[in-house]
């Protein structure tokens, strides 16, 4: 399938998700269950995307583990996203030198 | 009008700098997955979101179906609907329907966070300022990452492949540490994802993410429904 079709589908779906409530809705969602579900969704999605994929993200399981541990420790101590992300890559690179 | 626009630009500068480095990682990932520099930049320019783009590239790389792509984007990005809903209550009278159609393009986690923190009502000019500078950072970083990914030695581009995942961990871990329910959801979702990866390998990557996330979030919503105040953290 053409890459352009995939990109168009991604773009349209993502735009509509943002546009429909922004342009049309005014009222709040009342269902507590649905609001709770939406609250947890980002964390659940990111978790499923990260584990176990992060261990294959550098092409070398050892450097990936070093990067993952780095990211875990730094985010545990609430460091900013950018610091966590770049340090994980930096430590993976350093581990790859050995 | 004009000063609102520049206020938006200045509020968007930190976001743009953050995006620049994170999207660099996305650019590398996209090229590693077989996409061109142009395709990677086009994805960033039209989607302006990290997790959804990363999952989208995974689906393109394995030649997944369009249905899968639609469902993955819906599941991952549905949170923007809530943010859009919340911001829609905060708009200035100048925000006519055409302005809403344009500005909705730029509702991201970070832009939402900055806009929600504003004391005054949001004007189109203000939002256009933030969105413009942020999206320039996002697309520039992607293009640089995608181009450099082809030039950099493998030791460097390999290590940079972890950038986006590092950012995801930085989003998940602090709230999981503070709130038991989030920790539970994160662990349930990760366990499911591991099962799909090694045991139920017939399920494609995209659907594995969707199923894992939905089951984990339903579990969280059933056992730990949120109080009204937590909703504001979205």
Q: Mind explaining what this structure looks like?
A:
- The complex is a heterodimer of chains A (98) and B (234).
- Chain A is mostly helical and 98 residues long.
- Chain A has one domain (3-97).
- Chain A has helices spanning 3-24, 32-50, 61-76, 81-97.
- Chain A is extended and about 55 Å long.
- Chain B has 234 residues and is mostly helical.
- Chain B folds into two domains: 2-163, no CATH class; 179-229.
- Chain B is 77% helix and 0% strand.
- Chain B has twelve helices and no strands.
- Chain B is globular.
- The model of chain B has no long low-confidence stretch (mean pLDDT 90).
Give descriptors for this structure.
heterodimer, A: 98 residues, mainly alpha, 76% helix, extended, B: 234 residues, 2 domains, 12 helices, 77% helix, globular
Q: List unreliable stretches of 5+ residues of chain B.
A: none
- Provide the structure class of chain B: mainly alpha
Discrete helix count of chain B: 12
Uncertain runs of chain A: none
Annotation field: number of helices of chain A: 4
The radius of gyration over CA of chain B amounts to 19 Å
Beta-strand percentage of chain A?
under 5%
Secondary-structure-derived class of chain A: mainly alpha
| Largest sheet entry of chain B | none
Identify the overall geometry of chain A. Answer: extended
Number of strands of chain A: 0
- Please give the domain count of chain B: 2
**Estimated radius of gyration of chain A:** 19 Å
User: Percent of residues of chain B in helical segments?
Assistant: over 70%
Average pLDDT reading of chain B: 90
Largest sheet: number of strands, sense, barrel closure of chain A: none
Q: Averaging pLDDT over every residue of chain A, what do you get?
A: 90
| Gap from first CA to last CA of chain B | 29 Å
Overall structural domain count of chain A:
1
User: How many DSSP-defined strands of chain B?
Assistant: 0
From N to C, what is the helix and strand string of chain B? HHHHHHHHHHHH
